[in-house]
Amino acid sequence: MARQISEIQNEMLLAIANDSVLSLVFTSTSATAMFRLFTYIVAVSIGTMENLFDTHDAEVATTLFNQKSGRLPWYRTMALAFLYGFDLVTDHDYFDTTGATDEQIEAAKVVKYCAVNEAEDSSTVIIKIAGEENGVLAPIPLEQKEAFEAYMEEVKWAGVDLEIINFLPDRLYLSIQVKRDALVLDANGISILNGNNPVNEAIQAYMKELPFNGELRLNHLIDRLQVVPGVIDATILNAETSWIDAETAGYGDLQPLNIATIPESGYFEVVTFDNITYVV
């Protein structure tokens, strides 16, 4: 672990004080004495190097952890390494990119988000994935999913069952009552000064900041709304969600969301803002 700069400098000053020659030459107690300034510069340099070593050690540890075959982080690493349109090197678990440009390789990285868990009632590894469409999370197309599944079957550990979830976003329905400052927001929640709807934007920003497969907590959403200019208070009257049913390939019935939930698809879509009402 990197030492504090003061600790490093004090060690050098102590060494000078204990040296029979240097202690007779460098006797000033002034903080701006030349030899003290020099030891500070050296201490900063040493401290910087020690911090770099710590960073390197952490990066190596993370890399080794993620590269241990068969662990859940390894499956995530492999999923994000998928290159659509490329073939694996024979008898290896990485792709042959010979002759490909950086642009072609980057375009082939169709899996942008991934989360891996193990099923509670079996040894099945659940891999949730998503791509991007115009900067918005979306399932990857069926032909890409087919290639991805073939790739994961090729690189997975023998005997491990995989479940690939590549769904449309979970639908989120919110009924919210906002107590507004009539000097800042009009009856429809529009900013009188800027002409935008800051409550809707705050909800969208919160959803975007949620990590993939992250837990949505209603109290955190309320915290976000209560710091919006013009919002005096906010109350979630009702929250419901629905997600893709793997058997029917359609959305299931709405389910109540009381405190928190993790999306089945890995991400949410706020269906409408029409159920947000404003009172004074």
UniProtKB/TrEMBL annotation:
The keyword Transmembrane applies. The keyword Membrane applies. One of its GO terms (molecular function) is transferase activity. The chain crosses the membrane at residues 21-43. This is Nucleotidyltransferase. Keywords: Membrane, Transferase, Transmembrane, Transmembrane helix.
